[in-house]
Inverse folding.
């Protein structure tokens, strides 16, 4: 996700140069390799050790990161559309390929967004004090898929296909954004009642920027595509697309302003904290990246030099931060201490129910031994 959003930002910066597009292509290729490696290793792990899947799904924290898979895949789709279709001019087959990949991403996003909250309700043991912003991860997945749908629809030559994509994307936006707002209310209540998270997971305070930034970017792009496609397909009123476009920009500004509040909370939270480098540092990149992307898009649509410059500043900060995190990860990677599977810490240990049964059987056995005169000292 973090590497993918850097590739997207490099070709989205308003003040473009040819070398930025070359860098974006390099990062895009690197992200393809990274995604294939991580996804392949994960699939192999669960295929060889099926029990680890059950342990992971029932873990109250690690299971939430399932949402990162479709989100990371969506960044590949966006970069493919921009670099290979818009500027590479790869032809109709590339449009079909991108559209197919998007539908796969939609299915994975919806399954994650609906499945994980249900697991939280039915199987996980949670409390308000242990709630973190990681609860947003499965919820953000359909919001990211919605924004990707707008990007894919912009390159579809068939108006009906583009219309289906836009309508489904609006539904995905409606699935993710309101639910994310519910989680944000709960998370704000948790911060107010139980203070900031532990320093090991303090970086998670940046995660609320994800649904707000991506939601703002997506609703703007969907409005622009609705304004283009609706008149061509005779959908609703002739002015329906224009209304959605204007409304989308207004909603994006509201979400951007709300994100500004959470950005202040996040920066204030880490300003006085000393926290160790770990995989959680990757939580900086994607939320800040999509917030920068939303800022850039607002600057293009208004148009506003202020938002374009501010978005560029945000984008440069994200790229520099990504370089720091990549360097830190590469430095600590050979030691093997960068990766951790919390769900495996208790693997092989008896559960509370199993311990109770063992204790009961032991007491029954001692009672029988005493009755028969074979009690052990």
């Amino acid at each position: 996700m973090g590497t993918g959003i850097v590739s997207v930002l490099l070709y989205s910066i308003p003040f473009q140069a040819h070398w930025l597009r070359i860098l974006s292509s390099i990062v895009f290729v690197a992200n393809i390799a990274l995604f294939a490696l991580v996804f392949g290793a994960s699939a192999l792990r669960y295929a060889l050790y099926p029990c680890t899947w059950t342990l992971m799904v029932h873990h109250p924290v690690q299971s939430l990161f399932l949402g990162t898979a479709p989100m990371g895949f969506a960044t590949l789709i966006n970069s493919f559309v921009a670099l290979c279709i818009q500027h590479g001019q790869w032809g109709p087959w590339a449009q079909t390929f991108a559209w197919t990949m998007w539908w796969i991403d939609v299915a994975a996003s919806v399954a994650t967004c609906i499945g994980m909250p249900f697991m939280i309700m039915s199987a996980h043991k949670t409390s308000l004090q242990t709630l973190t912003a990681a609860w947003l991860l499965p919820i953000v997945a359909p919001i990211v898929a919605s924004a990707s749908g707008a990007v894919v629809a912009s390159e579809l030559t068939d108006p009906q296909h583009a219309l289906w994509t836009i309508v489904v994307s609006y539904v995905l936006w409606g699935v993710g954004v309101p639910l994310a707002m519910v989680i944000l209310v709960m998370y704000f209540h948790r911060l107010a009642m139980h203070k900031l998270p532990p320093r090991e997971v303090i970086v998670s305070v940046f995660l609320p920027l994800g649904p707000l930034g991506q939601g703002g970017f997506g609703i703007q792009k969907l409005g622009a595509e609705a304004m283009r496609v609706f008149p061509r397909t005779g959908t609703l009123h002739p002015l329906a697309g224009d209304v959605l476009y204007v409304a989308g920009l207004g909603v994006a500004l509201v979400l951007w302003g709300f994100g500004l509040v959470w950005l202040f909370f996040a920066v204030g939270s880490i300003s006085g904290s000393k926290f160790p480098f770990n995989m959680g540092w990757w939580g900086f990149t994607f939320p800040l990246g999509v917030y920068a992307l939303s800022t850039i898009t607002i600057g293009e649509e208004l148009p506003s030099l202020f938002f374009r410059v501010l978005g560029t500043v945000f984008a440069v900060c994200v790229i520099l931060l990504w370089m720091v995190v990549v360097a830190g990860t590469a430095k600590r990677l050979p030691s093997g201490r960068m990766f951790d599977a919390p769900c495996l810490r208790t693997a092989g240990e008896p559960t509370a129910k199993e311990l109770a049964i063992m204790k009961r059987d032991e007491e029954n056995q001692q009672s029988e031994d005493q009755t028969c005169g074979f009690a052990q000292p």
In short: The mean pLDDT is 89. The chain has twelve helices and no strands. Residues 159-194 form the longest helix (36 residues).
